[in-house]
Amino acid sequence: MGITYSPTECSAKAGQKRTIGTYQIYHSGVPQEKLKGTTVETKGLGDNNVAGNGRRVEAGKYPVATQAGSHYVTLGYLISNDSDQTPKPGLELRHTGNRSEILVHPGHGFLASIGCINLTRALANGNTDIPFVDSRDRIIAAITDLQTFAGTAFPHHNGQPIDNAWVVIDGEP
Known about the structure:
This protein is mostly beta strands. It has one helix at 132-150, and strands spanning 2-13, 16-27, 30-42, 60-66, 72-73, 88-89, 91-93, 102-104, 117-120, 161-169.
């Protein structure tokens, strides 16, 4: 199972900069029609060399794991329409160089991450805010799809690798 993400443009609003792209979820190379949309993350170009650099994760192929954190988890998240309620759903990218806690998680507002990836529907333009409930639902759909695809091989605990699950970031904006 894989998520391919292609950054395509950069935008700025009120002093913040972000990169917008598209994503598609695949099963054994076959695109899943209902599991695609828009990605939002912090400014490009990607850089995995320096921890805490405020940049987006660089192009590459990253294994996916269940997230074990206080704000985001893969198993045991809350389903709330309030973006302040935690823990929210999320997945972790592994093998990200000198960086850690690179997540795929719900976004809200113009930019809701530094180094992480937010999923959402198509945005009207580069300054459109991320709708939280849509973003949350897309992360839940990705987690549910991973659980279904992996079956009994899906981890029963947070903080565990998910076999044969990858995020592929394809290029720079």
